[in-house]
Design a protein that fits this description.
It is built from 14 helices and 17 strands. It is α/β, with parallel strands linked by helices. The protein has two domains: about 150 residues, Alpha-Beta Complex (Aspartate Aminotransferase, domain 1); about 260 residues, Aspartate Aminotransferase, domain 2 (3-Layer(aba) Sandwich), CATH 3.40.640. Bound molecules: pyridoxal-5'-phosphate.
Length: about 425
């Protein structure tokens, strides 16, 4: 397979995709080569979690095999080596997202942990009764429930930017909801895990900042698919999960502007996050350690550095083009299926389609596809309020990534067509 790094989508590029080329060599992902229920695996559940390339698995194993020790603590050789690799991953991730200072990168267990850290560390300290938080109707539960809790605790109001029928955010409503100056923070997803819509983050950030509000960006579905520059996004906080971007589970980061992080309270407390402790009091360590209490997922963080390196090697131009081509093919093919309804559709978007098929429960369809080796997601996608607005309890979701081929899209669609026949629709 050829690595493709061309920069504009054209017919020659479409031909490459039709030939089965992918930006990421499939041989880097041994898990993709297996057979499931006697069929070659077609893995199309990447919005839930991606597969890992061998370089990432190797980086994790190498830590255990060569420099297994705790970080930032001991004075011996292995601890020094482990700390250097851990901090090198921080510098690499900082570069990857365009963070001006690696101290602003806090390692977490994922997006959920990042949201909770800010909801508790910033929200509990700075939200006052009568303040408001502005979210959107398309948030994943992870970027909703922690804000619900802190709003209740602090007597703050929750407001929501509505989702339009084509799956975009209503910016006129956003302006109106910000107008009274009571919104202290806007928390939104970069890309919807249900609709695939890429939100106009910098435009919303400009509105928020003009109204005196901070911006928290949920990058769980954005960072794996788009080149990330926190400066261009103009957000104040960004959280993402490593496992959706080729890295191990249980890894992720919270990025925040240094001045904000310094003003916030720590979320978890204990070892490694202190400067001085007496029996009755403690003071906090400098950034980033103030927010990294306890022993972190050292091997995972080092492997997150390897994942980021892998994505940079492929390049986001190639990733975006490949996904655009797969998305076009997926939508064209799904449109051929009677009774199939796609949710959303607004552009720009990533290659992610949620749909249902009249007369077929999403769980039945997903199970049928599994019997043909095709892995897709079914359920409420951790976005119950959005699904309620769409008028459904569950959907199916197909979400390709950098190693999926056009042929795999065709196989998934063929399996949906076969399911309709099997269920006599
Ligand atoms: C948009 C979005 N936000 C947050 C999350 C939560 O990510 P994690 O479970 O890795 O913390 C997800 C996971 O699916 C997501 O899609």
């Amino acid at each position: 397979m050829k690595t493709n790094v061309c920069c504009s989508f054209d017919s020659a590029r479409a031909l490459d995709i039709a030939r089965g080329e992918t930006p990421a060599p499939r041989s880097d992902f041994p898990a993709l080569a297996q057979r499931v229920h006697d069929h070659p695996l077609v893995y199309l559940d990447n919005a839930a979690t991606s597969q890992r390339p061998q370089s990432v698995v190797r980086a994790e194993c190498e830590y255990y095999g060569s420099c297994n020790a705790n970080v930032h603590r001991a004075l011996h050789f292995l601890a020094g080596e482990a700390t250097e690799r851990y901090e090198a991953a921080r510098r690499r991730v900082a570069e990857f997202i365009g963070a001006p200072d690696p101290r602003e990168v806090i390692f977490t267990s994922g997006t959920t942990a990042g949201v909770n850290l800010v909801a508790a560390g910033w929200g509990r300290k700075f939200l006052q009764p009568g303040d408001a938080l502005l979210l959107t109707e398309m948030e994943h539960h992870s970027n909703l429930v922690p804000w619900q809790r802190v709003a209740r605790e602090r007597g703050a109001e929750l407001r929501f930017i509505p989702v339009t029928p084509d799956g975009a955010l209503d910016l006129g409503a956003a302006r109106r909801l910000l107008a009274d100056g009571r919104v202290k923070l806007v928390a939104l997803t970069w890309i919807s895990n249900v609709l695939g819509t890429e939100n106009p983050v910098s435009e919303i950030a400009a509105l928020a900042h003009a109204a005196g509000a901070l911006v928290f960006l949920d990058g769980a579905q954005g960072v794996p698919h788009r080149r990330t520059r926190v400066g261009e996004l103009d957000c104040d906080f960004l959280a993402f999960s490593g496992h959706k971007a080729l890295a191990p589970t249980g890894t992720g980061i919270l990025w925040g502007r240094a001045a904000l992080l310094e003003a916030m309270d720590p979320f978890l407390s204990g070892g490694d996050m202190i400067e001085r402790v007496t029996l009755t009091e403690a003071t906090w360590a400098e950034l980033p350690h103030k927010f990294e209490a306890g022993t972190p997922h050292i091997a995972g963080v080092i492997a997150l550095g390897a994942a980021v390196a892998y994505l940079e090697r492929i390049g986001f131009d190639a990733i975006t083009e490949h996904e655009a081509a797969l998305n076009r093919r997926l939508n064209e093919r799904l449109a051929e299926i009677p009774g199939l309804r796609v949710f959303g559709g607004a552009a720009p978007r990533i290659a992610l389609v949620s749909f249902d098929v009249e007369g077929l429960h999403p769980h039945d369809l997903a199970q049928f596809l599994d019997s043909r080796g095709v892995a897709i997601r079914a359920g409420h996608l951790c976005a119950q309020p959005l699904l309620r607005k769409l008028g459904v309890n569950a959907v199916n979701r197909i979400s390709p990534y950098i190693y999926n081929t056009a042929e795999e899209i065709d196989r998934a669609v063929a399996a949906v067509i076969e399911a309709r026949k099997w269920f006599r629709l």
